[in-house]
Design brief:
104 residues, 80% helix, single chain, 0% strand, mainly alpha, 3 helices
Length: 104
Amino acid sequence: MKRIPTFIYGIIAISISIILYILLHSLGFPDGYLTDLSKALKILYELMTGLYLVFALCFIYAAFSETVRNKFGNFLKYSFILSGIAVLIIYFFLMMYLDNGQGG
């Protein structure tokens, strides 16, 4: 992996972390009630915010360190992509099977 793509992955990871943090604080109804879906998404968003922040720090460190970039660059890249796919699968599973309080 080269230096510039590593920086780009770091920027993407920190952007995802910020977006998840914003989504975490916009969960629920205005009166504070959390549905089953909101409770599950809150846990998912908390975990993934921290994980993507760690990914961002690792990518930025790897961009500056050539030995880390050469040894762990592909591992970081593929684990970042696989964790994103896993999060999407979990998210869509939660959206399909948990009550979102929509009513009828």
